[in-house]
Predict the structure.
Amino acid sequence: MSSKTIVEVIQATTAYLARHGVENARLNSELLLGHVLKQKRIDLYLAADRALTEAELNPLRELVRKRARREPLQHLLGTVEFFGRSFKVDARALIPRPETEQLVELILAQPLPPDASILDVGAGCGVIALTLAAERGQSTVTAIDISEEALNLARENARDLGLEGRVAFRRGDLLEGTTETFDLIVANLPYIPTGVLPTLAEEVRHDPALALDGGANGLTLITKLASSAPARLRPGGRIALEIGHDQSSSLVSEMERLRYQDIRPGKDYQGRQRFLFAARG
């Protein structure tokens, strides 16, 4: 094994992961090997014929075994890229999805005041709050989460990104403890129905159940937030939600009942209704 080259190790690892049902097995192999060698994927192929040592292979073997047991790739790498920044991720909070990055893109296109006051509800590892703080330098950003562990992870990300002091972190259940008003309330809350949780991919089930379980119909927390948000929104203030792909019509009806105005569903890159924007009535 010690005489195997980089490309041979990638091929063998890819076959092993594929046999264990890991999607995108070759990409996983490249990223895990690059992580061990502290190299980019392109650099692996520039040195494809270099033989790896046992000191390099041993940590790779352990990571590959964990990945074959379906531990999330992001947990093994320890980071995820989001909006051009590297965020620490682990079992304390939900792994950020590409759809959430698109939600941030859509928020940044919203006509908010330059010094807007923004609240991120269910902040998790902090990708939304910290990205908005970095991209909107004059805005005031607050992040709230029910999980102290998730907030600690978000604080670590703030420190690593040099954004300490730019985001205020609070522990609370939805809007619990907030008394001020905001120009924007954004939330990526749990939206998976409780009964669906056992059917999720093994990797997804490594996320905290608290970050996945949306109640019987998946909408328990989202509708609770939608009901209480108007009291915490300034005149003309808006709410931005990431939702399940099949929940748009139900939530639009609920938002109309709650007298929101300018209700706009938004599609993700796959054309699914994944977001919902509305203004305080």
The chain has two domains: 6-69, 91-279. The beta strands are 79-82, 85-88, 117-121, 140-145, 167-171, 182-187, 233-242, 261-267, 273-279. The radius of gyration is 21 Å. The mean pLDDT is 95.
